[in-house]
């Protein structure tokens, strides 16, 4: 997952969590993205991240059915870069010291 995708998911989360009931059109404008991309992102959040996102027809927008925290977004950029670098080193073997560049 790229930083751009993570940033888009974070912004969608913040908008929904704010209680302003954003819809795909509003989010697409704010995030400078297409409505299908926003729809796929919301579907990903529901299916893969278990985000309790619901659509409210009366308010024409999305809301969280229950409290939801995206813990992924509490990782600092430096920590994220460190994790990405560690992932690029491959799996560690038990009993051997990892080789760092």
Structural topology:
Elements: H1 3-17, H2 24-30, H3 35-48, E1 53-56, E2 61-64, H4 77-88
Antiparallel strand pairs: 1-2
Helix pairs in contact: 1-3, 2-3
Supply the key terms.
single chain, 101 residues, mainly alpha, two-stranded antiparallel ribbon, 4 helices, elongated
Strand content: 5-15%
Largest sheet: 2 strands, antiparallel
Looking across the biggest beta sheet, what order are the strands in? 1-2
- Runs in which pLDDT lies below 50 for 5 or more consecutive residues are none
Helix content: 40-55%
* Broad shape: elongated
Tell me the series of helices and strands, N- to C-terminal: HHHEEH
Please provide the count of β strands: 2
- Compute the CA-based radius of gyration: 17 Å
**How many helical stretches?**
4
Measure the end-to-end span: 24 Å
Overall pLDDT score: 84
Classification by helices and strands:
mainly alpha
Provide a quick synopsis of the model.
The chain is mostly helical. The protein has helices at residues 3-17, 24-30, 35-48, 77-88, and strands at residues 53-56, 61-64.
Describe this protein's structure:
Helix content is 48%, strand content 8%. The protein is built from 4 helices and 2 strands. It has helices at 3-17, 24-30, 35-48, 77-88; strands at 53-56, 61-64. It has a two-stranded antiparallel ribbon. The radius of gyration is 17 Å and the shape is elongated.
